[in-house]
Amino acid sequence: MKITLTGLLCALLTGLLTTLLPVSGHAQQGPPFSEQAEVQAFIATMHEQHGFDISHLTSQFAAIHSNATVLRLIRPPASPSKQRSWQRYRARFVNGRREAAGQRFWDENGALLQRAEAIYGVPAEIIVAIIGVETEYGQNTGNFGVLEALASLAFDYPPRAEFFRGELEQFLLLARENGVDPLAVQGSYAGAMGIPQFMPSSQRRYAVDFDGDNRVDLRNSTADAIGSVARYLQQYGWQKGAPVAVPARVNGDPAALIAAGIKPVLTVKELLARGVFSAADDDPQRAAALIDLETPGQATEYWLGFDNFYVITRYNRSSFYAMSVFQLAEVLREVRNNRLAATR
């Protein structure tokens, strides 16, 4: 069989495309969402309950497909090599790069942070730390189409389909309220958006116009992001001036206390009676929960998390997340205070 140079090049190109296309998520995409019966029923509900135009909404769902990357990223890791590690997780967020960027962010937005703290009672360092952990101060807000991401999770991810269908509904309402094309909005693979990475329902419920321009813009307005983070935490019960967490030492088996969860229920005095010692022993009636921070091959860190720690977990339901926010906030506050003291 004679092989020509042109034929060889075509074969090589075909092989290259076959290798590369599946990575992009488009080679094996199925039919557009508009062809799914479940999506058609959803569109009909949006028309009946909220007055959306059926043909217009159908055309938007015709432009998107189930995103395999979204579905892969939302699933918890199954590999033992991805075992939870507090130290590995912490290093992603409590590091020199985020600390330096946090100082710059605080310097540039000091007046806004001071005003948010005065109105909502949430310390400036907590607000700065959350924005730093979420998007590194607006640098990484996500490059997934939010409509496609939410639709993929709403219709092709059964474990949390109900939740994401609700977020999809809220997103379409939010886009209509703000005169934004849903197909143009980008965010995380889970549909979180903007500088503070709010889910659509949170944006509609908690976001505020903090720069006074008569619109809420979490994608472009740092002021709106700062005010909205503070209000979110305040609405979930942030206690002004109250502690967040303290290190703890445990005598005996803490399994039952860990299994009780991260919501503070027992008092410090009750925890002390069960072998949990901490610097909070002088505040015996304060409610707390025992937090375990595991790292494979190392001793587990134990902390007492108070109500404000629990409030941070309402932003992201992870003790690793909340502790990273808290520890980054502590570093940011200490460095800033030292800098200010040095200039006096």
UniProtKB/TrEMBL annotation:
Its EC number is 4.2.2.-. InterPro entries: Lysozyme-like_dom_sf, Lytic_transglycosylase_MltB, MltB-like, SLT_2. Keywords: Lyase, Signal. One of its GO terms (molecular function) is peptidoglycan lytic transglycosylase activity. Residues 1-27 form the signal peptide. Residues 35-330 form the Transglycosylase SLT domain. GO terms for biological process: peptidoglycan catabolic process. It is an enzyme of class 4 (lyase). The active site is at E134. Pfam families: SLT_2. This is Membrane-bound lytic murein transglycosylase B.
